[in-house]
Amino acid sequence: MDxxxxxxxxxxxxxxxAKVGIWLFLxxxxxxxxxxxxxxxxLRVGADYHWxxxxxxxxxxxxxxxxxxxxxxxxxxxxxxxxxxxxxxxxLYMAITVLCAAIFMVNKAFEYKxxxxxxxxxxTDGTFLTGHLPQGYEIKFGDVSEVSVLIAGExxxxxxxxxxxxxxxxxGDLPAFKMxxxxxxxxxxxxxxxxxxxxLKAARExxxxxxxxxxxxxxxxxxxxxxxxxxxxxxxxxxMNIVPDTTIKLKPEQPVTVKVKPSQIFSYTANSLTFKDGxxxxxxxxxxxxxxxxxxxxxxxxxxxxxxxxxxxxxxxEPWKKAFIANRDHHLNAxxxxxxxxxxxxxxxxxxKEAFFLKIKSATPDAxxxxxxxxxxxxxxxxxxxxxxTGHHGHHPVVHVDRKDIAFYSNYTPKLNTYYAIYFTLTGxxxxxxxxxxxxxxxxxxxxxxxxxxxxxxxxxxxxxGGLFWHFVDLVWIFLFPLLYLL
Amino acid sequence: MADSPEEIQKSIRKYLWIGGILIxxxxxxxxxxxxxxxxxxxxxxxxxIVATFKAALVALIFMHLNHERILIYKVLAFTTVFCLALFLxxxxxxxxxxxxxxx
Lengths: 487, 103
Known about the structure:
The structure holds two protein chains of two kinds. Chain A is an alpha+beta fold. Helix content of chain A is 48%, strand content 16%. Chain A has eleven helices and 14 strands. In chain A, the strands form two sheets. In chain A, strands 3, 4, 5, 6, 7, 8, 9 and 10 form an eight-stranded antiparallel beta sheet that branches. In chain A, strand 4 (177-179) and strand 5 (184-185) form a beta hairpin. Chain A is extended, with a radius of gyration of 34 Å. Chain B is mostly helical. Chain B has one domain (10-93). Chain B contains three helices and no strands. The relative contact order of chain B is 0.09. The chains are: A alpha+beta, B mainly alpha. Chains A and B meet through helix 1, helix 2 and helix 11 of A and helix 1, helix 2 and helix 3 of B.
């Protein structure tokens, strides 16, 4: 059966059917994005942190806006060309539209990637250090004198899987391990399987033995006339039918060091580290500091920025503090000169950002163009190989942040704060719409050739409907761009 | 309907113009966001007014809402009302003295 009114208008609505359909769909789409914009308002009104303004890449967002506007023009031009039966122009405009969608998504991918690689580290006093983790964040634990592996019996809760959790994290070659009975094993697949089977067999035999002993005790009691106590013993023996867990202790024959990400383990202390499978190492915590290439210090949430943890000697130190103060005073004075008493500097979000969020673009404060600070003692702060030319990473100080100073850290993903949560939700959903719209338009361009030859008016209607969706995607972006990038 | 060939021919020039105006106002939006108005709330207000104007151009010209059938306006009337209600919901949180101090 053919769908009616695909070309001509239905008499009662005055519209071809697909147009009514797409507008109903767009109406529900408006509600979908409306709900998310409403969430944006709530999150912003309730934010207990400084809402990011101009924090995303404005240039990239601007380019993407132009790309979407251009594609909106081309898609309506494609429709108009088809209506006028200018087939060559129609195809050209459709192709440009799809190309614009691709450019938009590529830009978006760059933007997302930068967010995944960029980190914010919240110190315990509220200071944020922003930057990159060139080596990721790993905990180094060494001098391992004992590895306890849990072999679950029948009462399976956690079963030790050292081959999956412990062994891959060992630095260098894996040594052989000595068991408590003096025998030696290697922790590979066959070695561990043999060990596990032997352990379970031993556990089963021990259980049987215990049971037998208990039963004999019970029978002895009954024979002696103590029937109640004897029966209790027999019952107890009956209930002893679950093979218990066993913990095997292994001693490495050579020193072992492991490197793990915090997400790969369950917990650690100064002298033990437990993996998620229960495997526990006894040894020494060697290093749990975070190596961070700092590109910004945000002190806006610290009551006294000059006392921020960022300036302690292990971190950025005095020279950067001086650079920070010079930058802060410069902006505060400029604000004062410009506005005098008419404006409260505390209420200017822009000033707060300029004055209290120091952006770092060089390995030492001295290298800053506008450095007002000391010129002699600067080198102390920068263990970075600032002369090594390693792209933009070489232009930042590298610091070791103590674990005890870190309250929270995250890359620029929804975990960081509600702004990035709504940013990824809105732009992610919008991006999916761009992809979906591009697929539909691409289909009309490439796979609808027969309709183009036989019923161009029908294809024109299809393109109009696809175009309406495409304009809607552009329309959403018109609001997203200022709300997320600019304001 | 404005879908006759002559009308469409005429509107092509219009589409290009509208595209130009949209780009111009995008530049304006970016520029204005760097101008510090007395409160940041004013920046948001101005930005949203410009964005709404741009959105209206897209809806009216590109999406042909300047000459559409009554049925579509009826559908959109519902959406508009519900959407505005969604945007104004936050007013209920404005009386929360702990958090919100105005934009």
